[in-house]
Structures are given as structure tokens and as C-alpha cells.
Amino acid sequence: MKTNVRFIVSRAAFYLFTAWAAITINFFLPRMMKGDPVTAYMQKNAGQITPEAERALRILFGLDQNTSLWQQYLDYWGLLFSGDLGRSFSNGLAPVADVIASALPWTLGLVGFATILSFLLGTAAGALIGWRRGSRADVIVPISTFFSTVPYFWLGLIAIAVFSSVLGWFPASHAYDKGARPAFTFDFVAQVIAHGTLPALTIIVASLGGWILGMRNMMLTVLDEDYVTVAQAKGMPNDRVLWRYAARNAMLPQLSSFALSLGFIVGGTIVMEMVFSYPGVGKLLLDATTAKDYPLMQGLFLIITLAVLLANILADIAHAVLDPRTRQTEA
């Protein structure tokens, strides 16, 4: 019991410090860059901004030159605790939280589903291939690895050329048909599924090889362990030895990679969203960078950072559940 408490306290302290450091860097980084959002906004609207309006904008963006940097930092924390991420001047001064919220479901739905499905399929396939080492199933490894080495944008363009332009099975771009209005109806959901199929399949095909190869290699190592040999000598069913003993321990290193993948789901796959013109967070980040919309960039970096931290917390919990030795070592 004491070991579990020490483990929880130590990990909580580590992640709280990491979150503070990430948020602090997120505050100072835009202020270290050349220019600021108010200057960029004034250049975009030359001659239309009065000095009084500029002063109001600087106060709005937390860049008041009459306020010390330390006070700006404290004000930034106050805004964060109130859920205010600032205003996006590239979206008509709309709240950054609202802009991100409009793009986040598309990324979570598409990239999240594809990443989780790729992990499950790749881990299961890698476990089976490793269990049946030396069989014909080994041919899957070089084939899947080959697709993982193909540049992602090229794989996406090939998918569009074959399945959209030639066969006409799926739409080539966007999240739904032009002119359609988002609504929770059967027709609109069908459009979303049709538009999301190609980019989802591209993500799965591109990432499947890494999961298969990693799990297969770990299975080859685990199968030589004594506890697997003893379990087989006791006459346990092969399925139980495979999934409860071998695969359970072999997948522990996979969890760390999967946690990072889950964290970066929020960031989206920028190249994928560019190729398929998908309205997700990745494309939003690219547009914000192009427009030098620092508040929106800052909000996106913060959300991505917190998502990665949360994913790592979940990975730590999974490690502790699957391998009790982790709790003892950390404590």
C-alpha cells in the first residue's frame, strides 16, 4: 500500500512540474519571437487601426507595454484558470478556445480512431507473427514495413488517384460534401464516414508496420523467458500462454509509443490534413503559423502539450497495472 502511494505521489509531482514548465515555456516562447500578434494584425489592416485601438488590442492580447513581464505571466495563469486562451485575430477575434473546439472533434474522430485501430491491429498481428515465428506469416513484416517507409503525402496522393479519381469509391477531400450543413443525421454521418475513409486508411497503412515489427521483436524476446517455458510445460492452452503471459509482457514497450501517439492525436497529422484538405487541428495549426496568429498557435501548443502529458499518465497507469514491478521501482 505504501509503495502504491509513493508511486502515485512521485508521478503526480513529476507531471505537475512538467505541466508548469510546459505552460511557462508556452508563455515566453511567442514573446521571444520577432514581432507580436498586434503588430501583425496592424500590418494586415494598415491604416484602419487607431492608436487607441492598438492600445486596446495589446491589453486584450496581454501584451500591454506598460505592464511588467512578471505581471503578464501572472495574468496569463489567471486567464488559463478561467479557461480563456485569448483571441484569434485570423478568425475575426473569435475566442481561441472556440476556434480550437470547432476543429478538435474532426481530428479526434479521424486520427484518434485510425491510431487506436492501427495499434490494436498491429499489436495483435505482431503477437501472432512472433508466436508463429518461422511460418509464412513472417512475410507480412517486410510488406507492412515497406508501406511505413513510403512518404506519407505520397501514400495519400496514391490513395486519392486510385480510389477517388480512377475507381470513384471515395471523395478526395474535405470532411463532408460541399454545401452540406453539419447535423446529426444519417445522411451527414454517412458523408463524414465516406470522406474520412481514405485518410483513415492511409494513416493505418502508414503506421501499421511499426506496431507489427515492434510487437513481433518483443515477442521473440519474451518467448525465451522461463515463465513462458514453465507455462507451456504445465500444459496451459496455447491461447492463454500467448495472450496472458507472452503478449501481456511483450506489449509493455509498445504502451510508451502508443501513449505518445495518443498525445499527438490532438495535434493531428498535418500532412494528412493538407493532402485531404481535412478541417482538423493540424491544418488549423498550419494556417495559424502562416497567418502569424500567435494566440491561436499558443493555444494549440498548450492543448497538444497537455494531451501528451495526459497520454503519458495513462501509459504509466497501464504499466503499473500490467507490471507491478514498475510501482516498486518508481517508489
TrEMBL record:
InterPro entries named among the record's database cross-references? MetI-like, MetI-like_sf
Keyword annotations from UniProtKB, A to Z: Membrane, Transmembrane, Transmembrane helix, Transport
What does the record say about its membrane topology? Multi-pass membrane protein
**Membrane spanning residue stretches:** 12-29, 106-131, 152-172, 192-213, 258-279, 299-322
Indicate whether Membrane appears among the record's keywords: yes
Biological-process GO terms, alphabetical: transmembrane transport
Localization, per the record, is: Cell membrane; Membrane
Record's Pfam families?
BPD_transp_1
Give the PROSITE patterns listed for this entry. Answer: ABC_TM1
Xref: Gene3D superfamilies: MetI-like
Q: Which GO terms describe its cellular component?
A: plasma membrane
Family as reported in the entry's similarity comment: Belongs to the binding-protein-dependent transport system permease family.
Could you tell me what this protein is called? Peptide/nickel transport system permease protein
What organism does the record attribute this protein to? Diaminobutyricimonas aerilata
